[in-house]
Write a structure and sequence with these properties.
globular; 2 domains; Neuraminidase; about 260 residues; 21 strands; five-stranded antiparallel sheet
Length: about 260
């Protein structure tokens, strides 16, 4: 080992011991591009959120709720048997709305070392009845998805593998490929798409903006405690379901600064 390398290592160790971090080792700083301006009433749901601009759709682990866009968000529809008649499914993640249908990632899930049967379920947005089941035999664990309408693509994320987003054709559901994330993310709970970027919610309370080439940038951090779940950015605000515990499962409206 050269003297230069020895000196470099000593310098790095000295900086770390003194509480400093070399610039090359620092993670990107979080730039708060949004302000949390409103929280919904309690939704009673844990996993995900979507909207068509008129109704609120809440994805829970074992059910879907449809709520009115009023002061109380009162319930206007329920499907509490989304897996009815099917074996091997017990978990639903963060879904999306597109052209009259809800798309939801579904699987059998116990942990990242015990999961199986990744699939996409489609539901009628009016009745909430299940209309189609699409198996994803080549997929990893599935936690969230977002429709990229301009390309008619479905982008799927995994809670257990934050290195990629998987891209499917929205009509045939054929796998088109995967986009590697740089840097890789962790604990992905929600995904939304808007104007050339994906917005990805991590369970640590950070939202990452992801370019179509996979470059990730942290753009918002919440101090709200709880599980940081599904996203929707189809309206004027980035909306984020945060489960703060019983009675505190609320959608936070994040307005661009």
């Amino acid at each position: 080992m050269s003297r230069f390398v020895n000196l470099l290592l000593i310098s790095v160790l000295f900086l770390l011991a003194c509480g400093g971090t070399p610039e090359s080792l620092k993670q990107p700083a979080i730039i708060d591009l949004f302000a949390d301006t409103f929280q919904s009433p309690d939704t009673g749901c844990h996993q995900g959120y979507a909207t068509d601009g008129t109704s609120h759709f809440l994805f829970d682990t074992h059910r879907i709720l449809k709520r009115a866009n009023d002061a109380t968000w009162h319930i206007t529809g329920v499907n509490d048997q989304p897996f009815d008649g099917l074996a091997g499914f017990d978990h639903m993640g963060d879904g999306d709305y597109f052209e009259g249908s809800l798309y939801a990632p579904v699987e059998q899930y116990t942990s990242c070392t015990s999961d199986s049967n990744p699939a996409i379920f489609m539901f009628d947005a009016v009745t909430l009845l299940r209309t189609r089941v699409i198996d994803l035999p080549s997929a990893e664990e599935v936690s969230a998805l977002a429709v990229k309408a301009d390309a008619r693509e479905l982008w799927v994320a995994s809670y257990c593998d934050g290195r990629k987003l998987w891209v499917y054709d929205l009509d045939s559901f054929a796998l088109k490929g995967a986009v590697r994330l740089d840097p890789a993310l962790s604990g992905i709970q929600g995904v939304a798409y808007r104007d050339g970027y994906f917005y990805v919610a991590q369970n640590d309370g950070v939202i990452q903006r992801v370019s179509l080439s996979g470059k990730t940038t942290p753009i918002f951090h919440t101090t709200a405690p709880g599980a940081h779940e599904g996203l929707d950015y189809s309206q004027g605000e980035l909306r984020w379901l945060i489960d703060g515990g019983f009675g505190e499962q609320k959608v936070h409206f994040l307005v661009p600064k």
